[in-house]
Specification:
- The chain is α/β, with parallel strands linked by helices.
- The protein is built from 19 helices and 14 strands.
- Strands 1, 2, 3, 4, 5, 6 and 7 form a 7-stranded mixed β-sheet that branches. Strands 11-10-9-12-13 form a 5-stranded mixed β-sheet, sandwiched between helices. The protein has a two-stranded antiparallel ribbon with strand order 8-14.
- Strand 10 and strand 11 form a beta hairpin.
- Helix 1 packs across helix 5, helix 12 crosses helix 19 and helix 17 packs across helix 19.
- The chain is globular and about 80 Å long.
- The chain starts with 6 loop residues before the first strand and ends with a helix.
- Bound molecules: iron/sulfur cluster.
- The site of iron/sulfur cluster has 12 residues, from helix 2 and helix 9.
């Protein structure tokens, strides 16, 4: 019978990341903070899991909801005697409960399939499959082979989903067998640990690797604002510094950092802004008028909804465009936002080519993203390829002077993201308090827009939020360019 201290596959995996996380989940679950991103990843994974079942049709499903562990175990035992394929089969051995995504009867035993909604096999999936193998074989069932099934990012949808092409199977039997001794020891360690006091584990890289821990709000509560963890880039070991009692960024000894990290600590102390007029002027020299400011929003799906899209491909559904005909001239604006539930690529291509004149200079912030999407549109619409590629040829990246630190404020906390740079230089402008505050939220809003297509009120609100957010991005670029110009002319 399962008890509070019993292990399951997901609890074992949590303990594998950090024993303290498993202990807290067991004894102090109220300290957990639910993450919307984790919930969405779970929902997406569930969708992929259900679809993968169709690779092996006709199986028997052992549902999780509304059944006790014992009922699931019993139903699995019955299914094992007559089914060829079982979805979500349940097993328990030595007090550890696991559910297997798919098992398939073959000569000499069963094959085990662990389904992941990702683009590749990660180490953590091998651990996940290894614990299932350990428990299932512990009950006496023979597993002849173990596989991780994941999405093949080279698959391009063409009509009905081709599941054999969408999913790819990796035989991980060897890795799983190599882990068996460790799995046994780890189960024993976790079981013992759960019976004792909370493990004395300090914060470390394991708090976000491989997953963001849902107890960070508890364990990280003493980390101050402007902490050593704001130190950007590679170099100093921030956890080591923190362990030595150096908690604030400004308190990091200068001999422990170099390059851009040294500059970040120095400016955090002096609160001075770094300005290289020469570098900024060189950047301004690359611009010409009319000058356009472009920003895309995209959606991404693990299972493509439309033809000619690959899993996890970023598909542009919205843009904002500000422009100036001449330096200091009137600022114009236009925008595009796709209708919900339709493939937006044809329409966005035509609108973009209408809105951006041939050979116009186009500014983007982190241009590889915008250029990448335009290149994909060019591949999809060969008749428009030449014009689309010419937009890329005329594109300049506004991130460059900030990346080169020709302009740098300590307020950016070492980040060159527009979300960090904008409030550092433009008073009264930031993304705080916006309904949609980053690209991830915009992506979620796109899906929300499709889900609420039949509710005019909600749809209008979501569209308004999306338009406001994207417009803010290009207006931010306009304002940052003004800042650069002012610094040069000062
Ligand atoms: S926040 Fe870090 S230290 Fe705390 S439980 Fe999670 S992983 Fe462990």
């Amino acid at each position: 019978m399962a008890t509070k201290n019993s292990l399951s596959k997901s609890r074992y995996m949590k303990g594998l990341q950090c024993h303290k996380a498993l202990w807290l989940a067991t004894h102090k679950p109220e300290l957990r903070e639910e993450s919307e991103a984790a919930n969405q990843a779970f929902a997406q994974g569930h969708k992929v899991g259900e679809l993968a079942q169709e690779i092996f049709p006709g199986g028997v499903l052992i549902p999780f909801d509304d059944l006790t562990f014992d009922e699931q175990l019993q139903r699995t035992q019955t299914a094992l005697t007559k089914a060829k394929v079982i979805y979500e089969a349940a097993f328990m051995h030595n007090g550890v409960f696991v559910k297997a995504d798919i098992i398939r009867k073959v000569r000499g035993g069963w094959e085990l399939y662990e389904v992941k909604g990702s683009s590749k096999v990660k180490d953590i999936y091998l651990d996940d499959t290894a614990v299932q193998y350990h428990i299932i074989t512990g009950t006496g069932l023979t597993i002849t082979k173990a596989f991780v099934v994941h999405l093949d990012t080279s698959y391009r949808r063409n009509g009905e989903l081709d599941l054999d092409a969408l999913f790819t199977r990796h035989n991980v039997t060897k890795d799983v067998l190599e882990r068996q001794a460790d799995v046994k020891k780890e189960i024993a360690r976790q079981s013992k640990m759960l019976k004792g006091k909370m493990p004395d584990i300090d914060i470390g890289p394991w708090c976000s690797d491989p997953y963001e821990c849902d107890f960070m709000c508890h364990c990280w509560q003493d980390v101050p604002d402007d902490s050593v963890f704001d130190l950007a880039g590679k170099g100093a070991d921030t956890f080591k510094l923190y362990g030595q009692g150096i908690k604030k960024l400004k308190d990091i000894p200068l001999d422990q950092v170099k390059g851009k990290q040294l500059q970040q600590v120095e400016t955090a102390r002096s609160k001075k802004t770094v300005v290289s007029k020469k570098g900024l002027q060189q950047f301004l020299d690359t611009l010409r008028y009319p000058l356009y400011f472009l920003d895309f929003e995209t959606f991404m799906e693990s299972i493509p909804s439309y033809d000619d899209i690959k899993p996890f491909q970023q598909v542009p559904f919205q843009y904002s465009l500000h422009w100036l005909e001449k330096a200091g001239g009137t600022l114009y604006h236009t925008e595009y936002l796709a209708k919900p539930g339709v493939d937006p690529r044809k329409e966005i291509t035509e609108r973009l080519l209408k809105d951006i004149p041939e050979c116009a200079c186009v500014l983007a912030y982190w241009k590889s993203f915008e250029a990448g999407r335009i290149k994909e549109l060019a591949e999809q619409f060969p008749a428009r390829k030449k014009r689309l590629l010419s937009i890329i040829d005329n594109m300049v990246d506004l991130i460059e002077p900030f990346k080169a630190r020709d302009l740098y404020s300590w307020k950016q906390k070492g980040s060159h993201s527009i979300k960090a740079v904008l409030p550092a230089f433009v008073k009264g402008m930031s993304y705080d308090g916006m309904e949609i505050g980053d690209g991830g939220a915009a992506m979620e809003a796109y899906h929300q827009m499709c889900d609420c297509a039949d509710d005019p009120k909600e749809l209008a609100q979501v569209r308004k939020n999306l338009l406001e957010y994207c417009k803010q991005d290009t207006l931010a670029m306009v304002k940052l360019l003004e800042v650069i110009e002012k610094k040069v002319n000062k």
